[in-house]
Write a structure and sequence with these properties.
- The chain has helices at residues 7-19, 36-42, 46-50, 58-62, 85-101, 122-126, 145-165, 172-175, 180-196, 208-219, 223-240; strands spanning 26-28, 53-55, 65-71, 82-83, 108-112, 130-132.
- By secondary structure, it is of the alpha/beta class.
- It has 2 domains: 7-170, Alpha/beta knot; 178-240, Orthogonal Bundle (Helicase, Ruva Protein, domain 3).
- Helix 1 packs parallel to helix 2, helix 5 (85-101) packs across helix 7 (145-165) and helix 9 (180-196) packs parallel to helix 11.
């Protein structure tokens, strides 16, 4: 949960997380935490609040993740891949069991919830591989953040329970996808190379990298593909200096 204004929303989110058997709560710069209102709204999920990790940035919270979903109700200038909660839950269950099969160290999957009034910034959205939109009344689409957590937690609980019962065969397209951290290192490498070869200046063309990030997120790169692309970037930078 990013920059949450109302401590009661943190407590309510903790309660529904515990209802659905989830326990890892990260709080990015909450306005007030710990807080008595959070504890009251948690209604018995005090241990989850006690173990919540408070961090200074979304990047810090996402370190080590295999996949990141961001929640949004707003349309964005750059079109990201948008899924509904049930689709996100299915993708999550597939990814979790795939990571477990290969004993990956990066098997956490993050769901990012933004501020009550303004949601996630464009920069925060750029850190997410996919976006989740919860369908609701077009004339009243502003959903309470704790309610959004509840909907997503419920769909995840159902999907994980069903997937555990009857796990389908793993496929390479799921099993070897690059992790969030690997993609972020690739994006850093890509921007540095493009700037060094004078392809663009981030100060003049700030939309280039967000568009490239979306292009590669949409491609769902595998680990081997990321390694190949980074090799190309290294060779490109080396050739440009000769």
């Amino acid at each position: 949960m990013v920059n949450t204004s109302h401590p009661g929303n943190i407590g309510a989110a903790a309660r529904v997380m515990k209802n659905m058997s989830f326990s890892q709560l990260y709080l990015v710069e909450p306005k007030s935490f710990p807080n008595a209102e959070s504890t009251a709204m948690a209604a018995g999920a005090d241990n989850l609040l006690h173990h919540a990790k408070v961090v200074n940035s979304l990047s810090e919270a996402l370190s080590g993740c295999a996949l990141v979903f961001g929640t949004t109700a707003r349309t964005r200038k750059i079109k990201h891949t948008i899924v509904e909660p049930r689709q996100a839950a299915l993708l999550t269950s597939q990814r979790i069991f795939a990571e477990q099969e290969k004993k990956s160290e990066a098997n956490d999957i993050a769901f990012v919830f933004g501020r009550e009034r303004t949601g996630l910034t464009n920069e925060e959205v750029d850190l997410c591989e996919k976006l989740i939109n919860i369908p609701c009344n077009d004339q009243f689409s502003s959903l309470n953040v704790a309610s959004a957590v509840q909907i997503m937690a419920y769909e995840l609980f159902l999907a994980l329970r069903e997937y555990e019962k009857d796990k389908p065969p793993q496929t390479d397209s799921i099993q070897y996808l690059a992790s969030h951290d690997e993609l972020e290192l690739f994006f850093e490498h890509l921007q540095k190379t493009l700037v060094d070869i004078d392809f663009f200046d981030p100060a003049i063309n700030p939309q280039i990298m967000p568009k490239l990030r979306h292009l590669y997120h949409r491609s769902e790169l595998k680990k081997q593909e990321v390694n190949i692309l980074r090799g190309i970037l290294t060779a490109t930078l080396k050739a440009s200096k000769n």
